[in-house]
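Input for the complex:
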Amino acid sequence: MVKLPRPARALNSKGRVLDPRALLAAGANKIDFERLEALAGRSLLEVGDLDLATIHELCKFAALLELTEIARHRPLAGKLIITAFFEASTRTRLSFESAAARLDARVLSVPDGKVTGVAKGESLADIGEMFNSYGDLVVMRHPRVSALDEIRTNLTRPLLNAGNGTGEHPTQALLDWYCLFKWRPELMDLGLAADRRLHLGIIGTPASMRAVRSFLLLALAQPHAVAKISLLSESARPLDDSLVAAVAASEVELEISSSGLDEVLPSLDAIYMNSIALLGGSYEELDQRFSLRGDSPFAAKAVVLHPLARKAELDVSLDDTEHNLYFAQAAGAVFLRQAVLISLLGAIDRVPAGVHYLAS
Ligand code: CP
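Predicted:
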């Protein structure tokens, strides 16, 4: 077996630090690059745009990139990426831009949509027409669910949805699961024994939190890895009709509760939480009753994921504990997004053979 180097440094300063090599080893150190080449020119609007086998290959490719000094090979040299953010972001925009810069792409950054013609009443359809000439791929965040359809009226370049209102946040879900696969690589095994499957806790309201929605949809698509989901939400209707349908179509058991976090917490292997929701054009905090602290009654090996930004629901007393997977989750975003950008921009063949060796 090829011996891969240790990561040069810890990418997150607090909490658990994950080693990508185990994920690659679980895939027999092979990556199906042909499957990733098939993504060239495609858009990624929702997690359903990718099948599970492709998601596994993207995560393995991300692990390889995390272990490789890829920058000097300049795989995206000559490519122009537009990051158009019509809604606030710390992690998503900057990790996409970091990913692109480290691959030698150029970035045209719109950190605040108000500086575009939108301030004068310009339509997203017209902006999409302009983007066709100005870049090779567009990463867009917008507070409206309908924004994807609006810009795609004219946009012909690949579009990466970086969050559309209460809709979806697909690359967030990919990096969430990339983190979980690094933590427990066996979760990629379609034949995983029933007693090894996760009992997942989700604290949040998927119907109004796009990251939680996308994470839940990917969890429901993996009955071989997830035995049960306990969903804790203050909302009387945490699932909308499309999510109810997704739950009904899944073999994963889902239990909804509006109380009793401390009763269910000791039985959970992993907890995904969020509290900030975009409702009616402004941010609101939901599910504040369910907060986690360093002294919460976790199972000994339980881990906590959070897309961040956080408020009081995720106390800083958790940061220095082994339950903290959320900083490793955020740190891994760069590599997962690099894998997505290289694939959608059709640049797999620019990853040099010396890096491809795992696939041989
Ligand atoms: N996880 C996430 O979407 O964070 P940002 O809002 O900072 O991009």
